[in-house]
């Protein structure tokens, strides 16, 4: 493997061994603390244009399989790991991680002290730009500093046209902001007849399909960049049809109902995160990919109820509307990768659609 470098905009450089594609890329540097599920993570569209640092020291040991894709074409900009292996005894494996990254022109770099790097990033202000390069010279740093990170991530990953995921059950419209396939799998397990619409769809576009329910998907970037049109669509739909929102959809649901958002000092991406379900006071564990939080002080208590709270940083993790069958969660409910403890929220969505029929 050739020697390559991860460089950061503060002028630091980390030498390692390249794997995957030999491309030179730049993007926002993000850490992920999950122990499992690197395939689901690297194919999750919330990591569009981002370089992923994995805290798990050994990556690649289960290969790549057909069942763990969260998108067809991953758009992450790179992987940074301590150790990478291309030897897998997993019977489901069809490709090595190295082969997979080469297919999608995504570079990787191993041999990095990821613990030190993660600690460093936690003390840096705001998003941090980085590049994976062959030579860490002045030209590479000039190129990195000149890079402008896009705020049009949803435009670049969401479907531009409607498409079906047919079945024979309830009619569900999914608004695609950067859809995880795990959401479609959970709806398919419940025999839902799904139509996926682009994020620019109007309320009338949704109502024309006569759905039993509407789901707002996860997605990358800031919800503040998506404009008033999306919020108006949500306000109209929640008054007519059961609505379930996840991740970026949760943040948009909060904005549409008068709450404000604040960026987290350090983004959290990982699994097995403890979250309290307020109504029962029990604890669930879930996967997260969170850069923004709903400001608890701005929630209109005449409209919204807080349903879930993060036990580590106290942030709002779930909301429910007082007047309409509409609810949302910040964390990933599809369990791809796990934990699977919050999949019952899809059953709750199904119950809301059934109750509407009655």
UniProtKB/TrEMBL annotation:
Residues 1-170 are annotated as: CPSase. Pathway: Amino-acid biosynthesis; L-arginine biosynthesis; carbamoyl phosphate from bicarbonate: step 1/1; Pyrimidine metabolism; UMP biosynthesis via de novo pathway; (S)-dihydroorotate from bicarbonate: step 1/3. The active site is at residue 334. Pfam families: CPSase_sm_chain, GATase. Coiled coil: none annotated. Its EC number is 6.3.5.5. Residues 2-133 form the Carbamoyl-phosphate synthase small subunit N-terminal domain. It catalyses: hydrogencarbonate + L-glutamine + 2 ATP + H2O = carbamoyl phosphate + L-glutamate + 2 ADP + phosphate + 2 H(+); L-glutamine + H2O = L-glutamate + NH4(+). InterPro entries: Anth_synth/Amidotransfase, CarbamoylP_synth_ssu, CarbamoylP_synth_ssu_N, CarbP_synth_ssu_N_sf, Class_I_gatase-like, CPSase_GATase1, GATASE. Small subunit of the glutamine-dependent carbamoyl phosphate synthetase (CPSase). CPSase catalyzes the formation of carbamoyl phosphate from the ammonia moiety of glutamine, carbonate, and phosphate donated by ATP, constituting the first step of 2 biosynthetic pathways, one leading to arginine and/or urea and the other to pyrimidine nucleotides. The small subunit (glutamine amidotransferase) binds and cleaves glutamine to supply the large subunit with the substrate ammonia. Composed of two chains; the small (or glutamine) chain promotes the hydrolysis of glutamine to ammonia, which is used by the large (or ammonia) chain to synthesize carbamoyl phosphate. Tetramer of heterodimers (alpha,beta)4. Belongs to the CarA family. NCBIfam families: CPSaseIIsmall (TIGR01368), PRK12838.1 (NF009475). This is Carbamoyl phosphate synthase small chain.
């Amino acid at each position: 493997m050739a020697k390559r470098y991860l460089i950061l905009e503060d002028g630091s450089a980390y030498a390692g061994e390249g794997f995957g594609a030999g491309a030179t890329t730049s993007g926002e540097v993000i850490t992920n603390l999950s122990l499992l599920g690197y395939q689901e993570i690297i194919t999750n569209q919330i990591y569009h244009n981002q370089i992923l640092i994995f805290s798990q020291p050994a990556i690649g040991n289960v290969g790549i399989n057909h069942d763990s894709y969260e998108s067809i074409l991953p758009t992450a900009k790179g992987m940074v790991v301590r150790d990478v292996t291309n030897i897998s005894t997993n019977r489901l494996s069809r490709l090595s991680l190295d082969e997979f990254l080469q297919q999608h022109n995504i570079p990787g770099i191993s041999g990095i002290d990821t613990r030190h790097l993660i600690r460093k990033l936690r003390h840096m202000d705001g998003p941090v730009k980085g590049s994976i390069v062959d030579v860490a010279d002045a030209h590479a740093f000039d190129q990195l500093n000149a890079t402008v990170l896009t705020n049009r991530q949803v435009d670049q990953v969401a479907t531009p046209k409607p498409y079906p995921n047919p079945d024979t059950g309830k009619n569900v419209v999914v608004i695609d902001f950067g859809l995880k396939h795990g959401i479609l799998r959970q709806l398919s397990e419940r025999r839902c007849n799904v139509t996926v619409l682009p994020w620019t769809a109007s309320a009338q576009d949704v109502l024309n399909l006569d759905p039993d329910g509407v789901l707002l998907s996860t997605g990358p970037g800031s919800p503040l960049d998506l404009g008033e049109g999306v919020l108006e669509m949500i306000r109209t739909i929640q008054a007519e049809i059961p609505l379930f929102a996840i991740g970026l959809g949760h943040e948009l649901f909060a904005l549409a109902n008068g709450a404000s958002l604040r960026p987290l000092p350090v983004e959290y991406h990982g699994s097995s995160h403890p979250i309290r379900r307020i109504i029962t006071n029990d604890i669930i564990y879930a996967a997260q990919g969170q850069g923004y939080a709903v400001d608890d002080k701005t929630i209109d208590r005449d409209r919204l109820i807080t349903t879930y709270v993060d036990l580590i940083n106290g942030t709002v993790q779930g909301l429910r509307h007082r007047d309409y069958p509409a609810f949302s969660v910040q964390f990933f409910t599809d369990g791809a990768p796990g934990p699977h403890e919050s999949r019952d929220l899809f059953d709750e969505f199904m119950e809301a659609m059934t109750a509407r029929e009655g």
